[in-house]
Write a structure and sequence with these properties.
The complex is a heterodimer. Chain A is mainly β. Helix content of chain A is about 0%, strand content about 60%. In chain A, strands 2, 4, 5, 9, 10 and 11 form a six-stranded mixed β-sheet that branches. Chain B is globular. By secondary structure, chain B is an all-beta fold. Classes of the chains: A mainly beta, B mainly beta.
Chain lengths: ~120, ~110
């Protein structure tokens, strides 16, 4: 079935450093979504990428979707303490005849930022 | 527009009991998905309901079931609770197709003793 791997699992940075999390799918995706979950909170939608090679920016956050639509990345420039949380990717792809299309989440990258 | 709401927010049960969780989607959203989140397993998809029909199902045992009502509100039931069922149960609603953004509720934190 469809698998979505996300690395690293944990990342500790000093405030002001950059941060990147990577997402790889075992199958070609229709789209990929990114979510942020603050400690004690619930996942909050950040962005969706649909096109091959697409790049989107939200202030200090840059999201990329690979040319083959099997991988994606989220890059944060000059991290701040407000960036603390777990970042999840979720890929929409075909999970087989039985399951059909499925949104599969990566395991997330937990980001901590030291002030 | 009000967000996704879930009740109760916290629940403590003992092994063998059953539990019902409720989710009210955003107004106009017809799809409700349920997820289980645990520290070791991340976000695991349970099932999705759309227009009162189960549209998709994850790899969970039959003890986990759900339903959706005509007003799109959804319930999830877990029977014969096990210690390993302790988790944060999240529901998410979307308007229609899987390509659309889904919005998560605050979750129900279930502790099984």
């Amino acid at each position: 079935g469809q698998q979505v791997m996300q690395i690293p699992q944990y990342q500790h940075v000093q405030e002001g450093e950059d941060f990147t999390t990577y997402c790889n799918s075992s199958t070609t995706l229709s789209n990929i979504q990114w979510y942020k979950q603050r400690p004690g909170g619930h996942p909050v939608f950040l962005i969706q990428l649909v096109k091959s090679g697409e790049v989107k920016k939200q202030k200090r956050l840059t999201f990329q979707f690979g040319e083959a639509k099997k991988n994606s990345s989220l890059h944060i420039t000059a991290t701040q303490t407000t960036d603390v949380g777990t970042y999840f990717c979720a890929g929409l792809g075909w999970a087989g005849e039985t399951s059909g299309s499925r949104l599969t989440f990566g395991e997330g990258t937990q980001l901590t930022v030291n002030p | 527009k009000a967000g996704v709401t879930q009740t109760p927010r916290y629940l403590i049960k003992t092994r063998g009991q059953q539990v019902t969780l409720s989710c009210s989607p955003i107004s106009g959203h017809r799809s409700v998905s349920w997820y289980q989140q645990t520290p070791g397993q991340g976000l695991q998809f349970l099932f999705e309901y759309f227009s009162e029909t189960q549209r998709n199902k994850g790899n969970f045992p039959g003890r986990f079931s759900g339903r959706q009502f005509s007003n799109s509100r959804s319930e999830m039931n877990v029977s014969t609770l096990e210690l390993g069922d302790s988790a944060l149960y999240l529901c998410a609603s979307r308007r229609d197709t899987l390509q659309e953004t889904q919005y998560f509720g605050p979750g129900t934190r279930l502790l099984v003793l």
